[in-house]
Amino acid sequence: MQSFDLGKEGLRALNSALHALKGQTNMTKWEVVNPKGAHAIAAGVDAEVDITVRGSTGYYCAGMNKLATIRVKGSAGPGVAENMMSGTVIIDGNASQYAGATGRGGLLVIKGDASSRCGVSMKGINIVVHGSIGHMSAFMGQSGNLVVLGDAGEALGDSLYEARLFVRGKVKSLGADCIEKEMRDEHYQILEDLLRRGEADAKAKPEEFRRYGSARQLYNFNIDNASAY
Amino acid sequence: MCGIVGLFLKDPKLEPKLGEMLTEMLVTMTDRGPDSAGIAIYSGARDGLGKITIQSPQPEVDFDGLDGALHEALGQPVTMLVKSTHAVLELPEDQIAAARSALASLRPSIKVMSVGDSIEIFKEVGLPKDVAARFDVSKMHGTHGIGHTRMATESAVTTMGAHPFSTGSDQCLVHNGSLSNHNGLRRELIRLGKTFETQNDTEVAAAYVSQKLEEGQSLGEALTSGLDDLDGFYTFVVGTKNGFGVVRDPIACKPAVMAETDQYVAFGSEYRALVNLPGIEDARVWEPEPATVYFWER
């Protein structure tokens, strides 16, 4: 286990050490102590390692993550796992604005609540939120799955392309071109898998969720509107 | 981008440490606002006395003998505590208006930062740590306080453009964001009799709240009205003699984190600002909801 005291050694030293890990490495277990809300902790990691952050983080923790498993034993500030490519990021507490924004792959798990714009412009990431999410979540989402065990705020899935949104609780309002859709077998299977991997299978069952997606009226050219341009 | 910090103490044992705690929080927010910094401290009221915090670009000239000159003009005792470019005048409460007009003729270059029973405001251009040091903020005591680090967007980097803004007795407001309808609102408020020191958008928000309070609204009501009338991005933290309020615009993209324990309610633009507060590990930490008014009063 590599233990790293952020208060003593500083952020640049941590991220340089993590960025130096490539391909096969013996240093697969990392622990970061004294994060104290610092920004960009373990951003840009590209190695199959396991990192535990003992405390709460600031902006962009685990941003652009590739392959790594990163667990935050606290809450995360804005933009956690932004543009994640692969791997797993688990937040034990709450996450601030735009968690998992533009994420292209991997799994982001938030054990508490996520605030506004969770999964904005998601492009393939899977996000599991044990609590509730704020307004404008999954705005312009393109692909991937957003699973919410609690409630969703205003304008869920506004201007959505093809991401799948599963919400177990109440949805305050749907955004433009976002509609409720039927749950089919494939969706129950997706949910079963994500709830298990998102450490939420003891809390919720796939059949308790509703699915929301794009009505596909907004992003396809409609010849009837030609005179409007 | 700007940084906001605030502390509302519930436990009187912490009151001697208010300045020290706020200074540490403020300096942590330097990255968010290195242009200028300011702090409003509510240090309590002495019976029958009021305070005016003044500022001068030439303090050695303007503050020289000012207490004596005011004493002479008012025929009442006036004490003055000079802190760098600022000074706090303490005088009988009923003499405040007279003192302000006397100041305008005795020392025309002096600006009034705040007026009230309890409030003192200190703000200057420069790094937050330097601003805090020149006013010795870490030694200040009080019941609640608000600090701001500014990265200017809407108007010039000047002393008067720094936050907090105070536009009413014992009131202050700080802002992270920018307003888009402040010019129109300023014209309306001028028609209603408000005066302005700067072209700054935040000063308009502060004057708007003061106007609503004068019209008889509570602070909570004034902030709720602001949700309809103020257009733009904002996280506001406001102070009154006994209270401390927070409101974010409905889009809420300007960050805000709050923490509450039995000892205090704390506000930070980022969690970083709160990490060294006592008992933060067990505090209730949350983000204020958009378009929701939060208010604490003693």
From TrEMBL, chain A:
Domain of life: Bacteria
Name this protein carries in UniProt: GXGXG domain-containing protein
Species per Swiss-Prot/TrEMBL record: Pseudogemmobacter lacusdianii
UniProtKB/TrEMBL annotation, chain B:
Keywords: Glutamine amidotransferase, Transferase
Highest taxon, organism lineage: Bacteria
PROSITE patterns found in the cross-reference section: GATASE_TYPE_2
Spans traversing the lipid bilayer: none
Residues in Glutamine amidotransferase type-2 domain copies: 2-298
SUPFAM superfamilies xrefs: N-terminal nucleophile aminohydrolases (Ntn hydrolases)
InterPro entries to which the protein is assigned, alphabetical: GATase_2_dom, Ntn_hydrolases_N
UniProt-recorded name of the protein: Glutamine amidotransferase family protein
Species this protein is from: Pseudogemmobacter lacusdianii
